[in-house]
Design a protein that fits this description.
Blueprint lengths: L10 E5 L28 H13 L4 E5 L9 H9 L6 E6 L4 H11 L3 E5 L5 H7 L5 H14 L4 E6 L9 H10 L2 E6 L11 H4 L3 H12 L3 E2 L11 E4 L6 E5 L12 E4 L4 E3 L8 E2 L1 H5 L4 H13 L18 H4 L2
Parallel strand pairs: 1-2, 1-10, 2-3, 3-4, 4-5, 5-6, 6-9
Antiparallel strand pairs: 7-8, 8-9, 10-11, 11-12
Helix pairs in contact: 1-2, 1-10, 2-3, 3-5, 6-8
């Protein structure tokens, strides 16, 4: 599939739950969000049907998101079924890491080999504060476990926040010297709860690079690309085991190369993270729609993809928060 800007669409991010066991400051309000009812959330067999239709249209890369996807009952059998579909080339999971210690082996056996783990600080007290109750040791033990199992690449996603983790950027970069981790700094995007934080907390990737290089020396462009479907630019330190990535979500957006659609947990195809347009595929699924009708909904969603987002120019808040869309 190609959109009207001749971008090839071959990647689907599927949110399989809107529930999460953490309450990160930039993602959820303190009280959380009202979860969809069981009937409103797509059943696992419905998500698998969407994936089958996506494959027919040339989509071959899938990422499971949430909420926290590992909370979803039946996630391991679902991954096994997804991995068996002819045409699937890649399955990855984005997780907060809290369940990796107990579920890492199951994920590996089911067919997942790549993980993105959200981790915004290496300080236990700060971690507890930004997640509103999370346990850093629990997450770090999970990271060490999946590295031991053999997952690769394992990426750490750090949302850069001024006056919160700005003194840790070099510490995160140092992790790549000792571990085969791919540390990725992401610019804060004004979506949902983070809308009110964006002004005071925003930091550009250029500033992060400057801080890291002042402490650790010049970063060199990675000689070989880190396997994945996203827009990060990767660099390395001398003799490192991993890499350091930068996602310029705001200062130099990557929309010209966008290759993805999103499926929300409640069954909406979303053409752009930052755009309010959504195409309802749940109703069609439950009305007995055939493959051709479902394919038409995919084509409708692709036709709605904008050339780029406008958050940096002051566009209004996108309505749903990240936890409701699927990060």
């Amino acid at each position: 599939m190609e959109d009207r800007f001749r971008r090839r669409i071959d990647y689907l991010r599927m949110s399989i739950t809107d529930r999460c066991n953490l309450r990160c400051l930039y993602c959820m309000p303190p009280q959380g969000v009202t979860s969809r009812t069981r009937d409103e959330i797509l059943r696992m067999e419905e998500i698998l049907r969407v994936a089958e239709v996506a494959i027919q249209l040339g989509i071959n890369k899938f990422r499971l998101t949430g909420g926290e996807p590992l909370l979803r009952k039946g996630v391991i059998p679902f991954i096994r079924s997804l991995a068996l579909l002819p045409g699937v080339e890649d399955i990855a999971v984005t997780t907060n890491g809290t369940l990796l210690l107990e579920m890492g082996e199951q994920l590996w056996d089911a067919g997942v080999k790549r993980l993105n783990i959200s981790l915004d600080t290496l300080d236990s007290e700060k971690f507890n504060r930004i997640t509103r109750g999370g346990n850093l040791k629990q997450v770090w033990d999970g990271i060490e476990k999946v590295l031991e199992i053999g997952f690769a690449p394992v990426k750490l996603n750090i949302v850069a926040l001024r006056n919160f983790n700005d003194r840790e950027w070099a510490d995160f970069a140092r992790l790549t010297l000792d571990y085969p981790l791919h540390v990725r700094f992401i610019e804060l995007m004004p979506i949902g709860t983070s809308w009110t934080m964006a002004g005071d907390s925003f930091v550009s990737c250029e500033e992060i690079v400057s801080v890291i290089e002042q402490e650790l020396g010049e970063l060199n462009p990675a000689k070989s690309g880190v396997r994945g479907c996203g827009p990060a630019e990767y660099y390395t330190l001398p003799n490192s085991k991993g890499s350091i990535g930068f996602i310029h979500a705001m200062s130099n957006h990557f929309c010209a190369d966008c290759n993805r659609l999103r499926l929300t947990a409640d069954g909406k195809l979303r053409p752009c993270l930052h755009d309010q347009h959504e195409v309802d595929i749940r109703e069609a699924l439950r009305s007995g729609a055939g493959d051709r009708e479902l394919q038409q909904l995919f084509h409708k969603a692709v036709a709605l993809k904008p050339a780029n987002h406008h958050l940096a120019t002051g566009a209004p808040e996108a309505g749903r928060g990240m936890c409701q869309i699927g990060g």
